[in-house]
Amino acid sequence: MSRTPVRPYLIAKDEEGDFRITIRETRYNSQHYPLVTSVLQADRFRTATAARNHAKAEFGAQADQFATK
């Protein structure tokens, strides 16, 4: 695994065609190895832009904190 932290908000399309947000948190253990915790949010969005706008409004996300899959 890379030692660079992952972007905290992942926007990905699910099997039904909706977009969902996964919130990721990176922590480091005593050997400085990254440990990533991911939590998939229940909300579904028709577009990636709607998901991005929701993350900005609800979680205070910034433009450079998003990753897409």
Secondary-structure blueprint of this entry?
Layout: E1 9-13, E2 19-28, E3 34-40, H1 48-59, E4 66-68
Parallel strand pairs: 1-4
Antiparallel strand pairs: 1-2, 2-3
The counted number of beta strands is 4
Reported by name, the CATH topology is: Nuclear Transport Factor 2, Chain: A
* Fraction of residues in helix: 10-25%
Give the overall shape.
Answer: elongated
CATH class: Alpha Beta
- Structure class: alpha+beta
* Main beta-sheet strand count, sense and barrel state: 4 strands, mixed
Uncertain runs with pLDDT below 50, 5 residues or more?
none
Mean pLDDT: 92
- What is the number of helices? 1
Order of SSEs, N→C?
Answer: EEEHE
Question: What are the defining features of this structure?
Answer:
single chain; 69 residues; alpha+beta; Nuclear Transport Factor 2, Chain: A; 4-stranded mixed β-sheet; 1 helix; 4 strands
Question: Mind explaining what this structure looks like?
Answer:
This protein has one domain (9-68): Nuclear Transport Factor 2, Chain: A, CATH 3.10.450. It has one helix and four strands, in the order βββαβ. The chain has one helix at 48-59; strands spanning 9-13, 19-28, 34-40, 66-68. Strands 3-2-1-4 form a four-stranded mixed sheet, with helices on one face. The two termini are 18 Å apart.
